[in-house]
Amino acid sequence: MEKITKTIANVIFVTLIAIVAYLLSGLLIGQFGEIDSDIKYVVSYSTPMLLMLLGVIIYDRVVCKRAQRTMWSIRGFNPSMILWGVLLLVSLSIVLSPLMRLLPTATPFVETEVWAVVTVICIAPIIEEVLFRAKIFSLFRSTLSPTLSAVFTSAIFALMHGFTGVAIEAFLAGMIFSYAYIATGSIFAPIILHIFNNVMAFVMMQFMYQERTISDYIGALESFDVIYAVALLITIIGLIAIVRKYRLADRVVREGGTLSNLRIEERNADNTSADKESDVA
């Protein structure tokens, strides 16, 4: 019961922090008056997100009396994890594209001035991953399993993106980013995947199909059915791998370990499997 109460309190406080951050950023930005649209885009995005990040850190340290360290291991640059994550994100976008056509979405538009592009492609992924994966995910980890922590974090991440169609993609992408964070023990992996995801979305919106979905763009190809089938297969395999990783993480934590023990458990499992194969041979 205590964990449920603390989880509800965490959800309420994170929501309040987000509301206050956006209200404060509106007041601060209003003091600047007329500024260059490029700079305004950067400031209007960065200010509320940084205030929210600061608020979550203060809440975690002062109210919860914890100080979760962000995992900055170089394992986050694991090329196989990054390539697999990129492939899964692309496949997921293709698989979801028919559904996206039926759901309400915002008119896809992003500023194309230099600093606005830098914000979308570089600044946003870094700030959002430190906020959501390193801080909010760790906050929920104090009362929830890794899987539920990822679900709650991804749900908040999705709500921050607003529209129904975008929110669904954001939730699933958030689960992939959390998976990368857990699997590598490093914030670098989700940051890199988030950067790629934003680059892909930006390119599609600005230069390829404007107000169309991916299926509209490649649907004219005679091989689209084959492409969709391959993407669906990759998505299914990827989701199975993610579910298995989350289940392993839950088991490690349930047995008293931490997420830093996860790679040790995986190595032990691999060694056990190799021993069984050698015994059979």
Summarize the structure.
The protein is mainly α and 281 residues long. The chain has helices at residues 2-30, 37-63, 79-100, 114-141, 146-159, 164-184, 188-208, 214-218, 224-254, 262-280.
The secondary-structure class comes to: mainly alpha
Which percent bin holds the helix content? over 70%
Rounded Rg:
20 Å
Count of helical regions: 10
| Uncertain ranges | 271-281
Estimated share of beta-strand residues: under 5%
Provide the succession of SSEs. HHHHHHHHHH
Span from first to last CA?
51 Å
Shape field: globular
Overall mean pLDDT score? 82
The count of DSSP E runs of length 2 or more, i.e. the number of strands, is: 0
What composes the largest sheet? none
Folded structure, characterized:
- With 281 residues, the protein is mostly helical.
- Helices cover 77% and strands 0% of the residues.
- The chain is built from ten helices and no strands.
- The longest helix is centred in the C-terminal third of the chain and has 31 residues, at 224-254.
- The model is unreliable at 271-281 (pLDDT under 50).
Keywords:
mainly alpha; 10 helices; 0% strand; globular; disordered C terminus
Secondary-structure map:
Blueprint: H1 2-30, H2 37-63, H3 79-100, H4 114-141, H5 146-159, H6 164-184, H7 188-208, H8 214-218, H9 224-254, H10 262-280
Helix pairs in contact: 1-2, 2-4, 3-6, 3-7, 3-9, 4-5, 4-7, 5-6, 6-7, 6-9
